[in-house]
UniProtKB/TrEMBL annotation:
One of its GO terms (biological process) is electron transport coupled proton transport. The gene is nuoB. SUPFAM superfamilies: HydA/Nqo6-like. Residues 48-158 form the NADH:ubiquinone oxidoreductase-like 20kDa subunit domain. One of its GO terms (cellular component) is respiratory chain complex I. This is NAD(P)H-quinone oxidoreductase subunit K. It is found in: Cellular thylakoid membrane; Membrane; Thylakoid. Belongs to the complex I 20 kDa subunit family.
Length: 230
């Protein structure tokens, strides 16, 4: 019985075994491996979440080790990370950018303001309550703002989703609830906070009561003390 060396120093010999010279795979696996290993995100940011997105590319996290090279134009990108608040005024531009990206393309909603409107969803009439009302979203990253670790976790989840896709079934599994920039027309509603609330009837009645109370002569402290001692 001869002892075999696990890591020999000399060059390995070319073997004739079938399992060591041929790799068997499918077209879907090869195509998905190429997509998930070369995601090109668009340099897109509208608010403070973009700072965390930039931190994910810093030397501490180094998101480029996943093969993600940021691109400056939508025609060269296949991943859109909506990092920040989306307003009604900016919504048509966002949809236009998404339409300019080639297929297959993916979207990550980053931050609470992008997912639900965040802290602006209560009193802001111009904030979009969820970017999924405009474009289809693949992965949601909650937080205000989410840390770079959460962004990297979203990338890993997106890579797993891409790995399970099929070329033949893509027209079945892809999302269809999307609004295109050409036929979509946002409904213009009158502003609620128009600054005219002081002119309402209830405010006028309350102001008249305040004027009546302020017109009365209030008793002095001496008069009150004399009445109590009296």
């Amino acid at each position: 019985m001869t002892n075999s060396i696990i890591n020999p120093i000399e060059h390995p010999e070319v073997t004739q075994q079938f399992s060591e010279n041929i790799i068997l795979t499918t077209l879907d696996d090869l195509y998905n491996w190429a997509k998930m290993s070369s995601l090109y995100p668009l340099m897109f940011g509208t608010a403070c979440c973009f700072m965390e997105f930039m931190s994910a590319y810093a030397s501490r996290f180094d998101m480029e080790r996943y093969g993600m090279i940021p691109r400056a134009t939508p025609r060269q990108a296949d991943l859109l990370i909506t990092a920040g608040t989306i307003t009604m005024k900016y919504a048509p531009n966002l949809v236009r950018i998404y339409e300019q990206m080639p297929e297959p393309k993916y979207v990550i909603a980053m931050g609470a303001c992008t997912i639900t409107g965040g802290m602006f969803s209560v009193d802001s009439p111009t904030t979009v309550r969820g970017v999924d009302k405009l474009i289809p979203v693949d992965v949601y990253v909650p937080g205000c703002p989410p840390r770079p670790e959460a962004v990297i976790d979203a990338i890993i989840k997106l890579r797993k989703k891409i790995a399970n896709e099929s070329i033949q079934e893509r027209h079945i599994t892809q999302q269809t609830h999307r609004y295109y920039s050409i036929p979509h027309r946002m409904k213009v509603v009158p502003a609620v906070n128009d600054g005219m609330y002081l002119a309402s009837l209830s405010e006028q009645v309350s102001s008249q009561k305040i004027e009546r109370v302020s017109g009365l002569e209030l008793p002095t402290l001496e008069a009150i003390a004399n009445a109590q001692n009296g």
